[in-house]
Design a protein that fits this description.
Number of strands: 0
Largest sheet: none
Helix content: over 70%
Structural class: mainly alpha
Distance between the termini: 51 Å
Strand content: under 5%
């Protein structure tokens, strides 16, 4: 029985990772089309149809792979803004930024911070918009 349980656990982890990678590609591909006039509507519809799956992939990544979670939240930032999922987006940005290690690429963290501030602005939270995020000191 133990061997079967461990095989099931490995298969579940693999499936989750594969799912996360698939939906990361879906989100990143759609994000690149969101700002184009002819392609934005199709991209928004694609992301909307996969919304629940994208959130599930984001939840998994947030718990297991902080860098992937940041990439996915960054890819979903404009979608959250366009569809009015402002509170949802801000919460995911907050969570993924907080869980990312100091060694993570600053560009990813900076993009997430920018997305979080943009959504805060749309919600009328100008204090968050103006308040600089405290960065961790760089090691010497």
């Amino acid at each position: 029985m133990r061997r079967i349980d461990s095989v099931k656990a490995v298969l579940c982890r693999w499936r989750s990772k594969a799912t996360r990678l698939l939906f990361l590609r879906v989100a990143q591909g759609a994000a690149s089309r969101l700002l184009g006039p002819e392609t934005a509507l199709a991209a928004v519809e694609e992301l909307e149809s996969e919304h629940a799956n994208l959130l599930a992939a984001l939840a998994w990544a947030a718990e297991n792979e902080p860098e992937s979670a940041l990439k996915l939240s960054n890819a979903l930032g404009w979608f959250w803004e366009f569809r009015g999922y402002l509170a949802q987006g801000r919460e995911w940005f907050k969570k993924t930024i907080a869980q990312s290690p100091a060694t993570l690429v600053d560009l990813l963290r900076g993009e997430a911070m920018s997305g979080q501030r943009r959504l805060a602005c749309w919600q009328g939270d100008y204090r968050t918009r103006r308040r600089p995020h405290r960065t961790r000191p760089a090691s010497v």
